[in-house]
Amino acid sequence: FHSFERWLTPGLGVSELEKAILNISGETEKLANYTAHGLSTLQTAITELSGLTLQNRVALDMILASQGGVCTILNVTCCMYVDHSGELLTDIH
Predict the structure, then answer these.
(1) Which residue from 24, 44, 70, 77 has the least number of CB within 10 angstroms?
(2) Which region is the signal sequence (predicted)?
(3) What are phi and psi of 80, to 5 degrees?
(4) In the structure, what pLDDT confidence band is assigned to residue 73 with cuts at 50, 70 and 90?
């Protein structure tokens, strides 16, 4: 009897499906917004941390300049790279 009723009134369950789809769509949009906000916050933290790291490195290099610098003392090749392009955030938005 239930299947006959659905056949007779096909719109009976469509409303519930539409609500479910809208709910899923809304939750997906919230998740995308939370993710974008989280990535933006992380990018801000990375920018601040890279600035602090560079300041500390400059100060340490100045202190150790008489001994040849940090890289000479540690006997390593120094290289530092921090992505400031913002491409990831641009792609998310």
Answers:
(1) 77
(2) none
(3) -135, 135
(4) confident
